[in-house]
Amino acid sequence: MRIMGIDPGLATVGYGLVDTSRPRYPACVAAGAVVTARDLPIAERLLEIQQDLDGLLREYQPDEVAVEDLFFVNNITTGMQVAMARGCILATLASRGLAVHAYVPMAVKQAVTGSGRAPKREVQEAVRQMLGLERIPKPDDAADALAVALCHQQHRGLRNLVPGRAEGARGR
Predict the structure, then answer these.
(1) Cβ contact 151:7 at 8 Å
(2) 98: burial class by Cβ within 10 Å (0-12, 13-18, 19+)?
(3) The domain spanning residue 146 has which CATH number?
(4) Is 59 a catalytic residue?
(5) Looking at 48, 64, 125, 141, which residue is catalytic?
(6) Predicted confidence (pLDDT) at residue 23 exceeds the cutoff of 90
(7) Tally of domains in the chain
(8) pLDDT tens, 69-122?
(9) Strand, coil or helix: 11
């Protein structure tokens, strides 16, 4: 099974694909980022995100997709822009008939490090180790997206152990 993780943003959308056919030894299929130019109008940046993500979905054919939920405290303008980008991402996924599994940042950190308050560097190192990579994936957004995919892999396994839980139920 291929799980795509997505770390939403307007300037940079991280993506990472994990093959979980051997659940104890997940493998990184691909990781990278969709980057939009800051000098473009927001509508054009959103279109670029939609088109590039659609191309990635066509190329990699993920079975399931997990997207990080938004969490912002201080900058409402940045938060609104990321929310617009996340909406664009969700619409693109829905247009391909893919269910979205959403996880808050603390759940992602908890899943990969054992602590919901782990610093970014610790999360990235955990991703590197879990996937048997030589280096931490770059940019940071790609490593974050892989962490989201790994979080979904763990939650998916737990969900399947609980009687009465339907496959594809929304993750939290």
Answers:
(1) no
(2) middle
(3) 3.30.420.10
(4) no
(5) 141
(6) no
(7) 1
(8) 987 666 777 889 999 999 999 999 999 999 999 999 999 999 999 999 999 999
(9) coil
**Catalytic residue from among 7, 52, 64, 144:** 7
Tell me the per-residue pLDDT of 44-68, one tens digit each, with 9 for 90 and over: 999 999 999 999 999 999 999 999 9
- Residue 68 lies inside a defined structural domain of this protein: yes
Contact residues for 168 (Cβ-Cβ < 8 A; gap 6+): 64, 99, 101
Would residue 68 show up in a list of annotated catalytic residues for this protein? yes
User: pTM (2 decimals)?
Assistant: 0.90
Contacts of 150 (CB under 8 A, 6+ apart): 5, 18, 26, 111, 112, 127, 130, 131
pLDDT band at 168 (very low <50, low <70, confident <90, very high): very low
Three-state secondary-structure class, residue 57: helix
